[in-house]
Amino acid sequence: MKTRAIALIDCNNFFVSCERLFRPDLEGKPVVVLSNNDGCVVSRSQEVKDLGMKMAVPWYQMKDMAKRHGIVAFSSNYELYADLSNRVMSLLAQFSPEQEVYSIDESFLDITGIALDHTEYAQQIRETVRRCIGIPVCVGVAASKTLAKLANHVAKKNARFGGVCDLNALTERELDELFAAIDVREIWGVGRRSADRLNEMGIRSVLDLKRTPAKRLRDEFSVVQERIVEELNGTACLELDDVVPDKQQIICSRSFGTPTSLLSDLEQAVVAYTTRAAEKLRLQHSLAGGIQVYIRTSPHRERDPQYQQAMLVPLQEPTDDTRLLCHAALRGLRRIYRAGYAYQKAGVMLSGIIPASVRPRTFFDDAEAQQKSHALMRTLDRINRSMGSGTVKLLGEGYDTSWAMRRDHRSKRCTTEWSELCRARA
Predict the structure, then answer these.
(1) Residue 424 has pLDDT above 70, yes or no
(2) Distance between CA 202 and CA 79 in Å, rounded?
(3) Which segment of 137-141, 235-239, 245-249, 414-418 scores lowest on mean pLDDT?
(4) Does 415 map to a domain?
(5) Residue 403 domain-assigned?
(6) Looking at the predicted structure, is the pLDDT value of residue 243 above 70?
(7) Within 10 Å of residue 166's Cβ, how many Cβ atoms?
(8) How many domains does the chain have?
């Protein structure tokens, strides 16, 4: 029986790599990408890691350090990252009929039965992604998903593996030596609290956990920890999810770049967020039965009056029509809005989500209106996908977005916005 071979492909410092793709002059230089409103560091190049800058540190605390070392900072360019992620995942799908897109920068592939040597095949994957898209990746190969994640960690941290670590190709002695040097905290599924408890039990390395009787872990923790031990010993307990399940809730929210007390600003924000949520709803071919809208002030501005409120607005019938969803969201917003507060955040959440194929039928259905709505939304999505997000939008979204999320250091959306295409001079 052939040994199972699961490959985890993980993009290296993905957000930074996306920025460097159109700025090759930044190769080898320290680069960071910041969170919403340029708040915290969410992605670091290796050069920044070597300087000792931690993940999630507030950017304002790092500005002196950045100036000393010439660190280049970018605001999060979500449009660019999402587009490049889709390209990477589509390319990876060519290497295996079984793929699970785990996150924006990670994908599992089942390469069991591939005729080529798995290390050689993984190197082909790395080279193809780098050549065709320009994003560097590392690959971990093993008999289970947990081991594949661990193998990817080894591939990234140990230069001698050349970006690919195939645990299936190592001897038992080599595995033990490798696992003895890796902290138990690096295991997928072991959180901080679990790691602390494991340390108290004398379990500090991956090898320690691998050798712990699974039943003991189940008695101390849960079946989850038991499965982790089984996976570390090569028994696959987690299958690849080749079909991503539809979301049962769709949330879209942002903190404002500048606090606002104006209802008109909040209305524009809610329309914009509802529009994005409705696009995601249609993308998974679903309908929403209700929409919740919420607003809040900043808990960090302790001297300001505080207020937060939310309201769920049920819909007469499930829909994916942006206009109907925005109308309901605005109705809820106007009910919960109170003047005199400096609002820092607003958001919407679609709930009661069902597949469009099982839309409940009633005697009062207007088939013609539903057809027109479907055609309009399909046209809207097609234009915005081909011409750039926001090319066609509802008037309620407005043009004066002084309240919008601050992204002072955003790069160009080179792959999704016609007006921001790169220019080449000959």
Answers:
(1) yes
(2) 46
(3) 245-249
(4) no
(5) no
(6) no
(7) 23
(8) 3
* Side chain identity, residue 358: V
Confidence of residue 242 (pLDDT cuts 50, 70, 90): low
Q: Please state which of the ranges 208-212, 216-220, 263-267, 350-354 shows the lowest mean pLDDT.
A: 216-220
Total Cβ atoms within 10 A of residue 103: 10
CATH number, residue 209: 1.10.150.20
The residue count of the chain comes to: 426
Residues 6+ apart with CB under 8 A from 237: 144, 227, 230, 231
Summarised one tens digit per residue, pLDDT across range 85-104 is 999 999 999 999 899 988 89
DSSP per-residue codes, 113-160: T-SS-HHHHHHHHHHHHHHHT---EEEEEESSHHHHHHHHHHHHH-GG
> From start to end of 159-243, where are the E strands?
164-166
What's the predicted TM-score (pTM) here?
A: 0.74
CB neighbours of residue 202 within 10 Å: 8
| 124-146 b/e (C-beta count within 10 Å ≥ 16 → b) | ebbeebeeebbbebbbbbbbbbb
From 217, 244, 271, give the residue that closes a domain: 244
CATH number at residue 95: 3.30.70.270
Tell me the pairing of strands 72-75 and 31-34.
parallel
| Full domain range(s) for residue 182 | 176-244
pLDDT digits (tens, 9 = 90+) for 18-67: 999 999 999 999 999 998 778 889 999 999 999 999 988 988 899 899 99
Tokens standing for 377? Answer: 């939304």
- CA 76-80-81 angle, 5° bins: 70
Q: Are residues 184 and 124 in the same domain?
A: no
Contact indicator for 53, 65 with CB cutoff of 8 Å: yes
For position 266, what pLDDT does the model report? Answer: 95
* 138 CB-side CA count, 13 A: 23
Domain assignment present for 422: no
Run of H or E residues at 72: strand 72-75
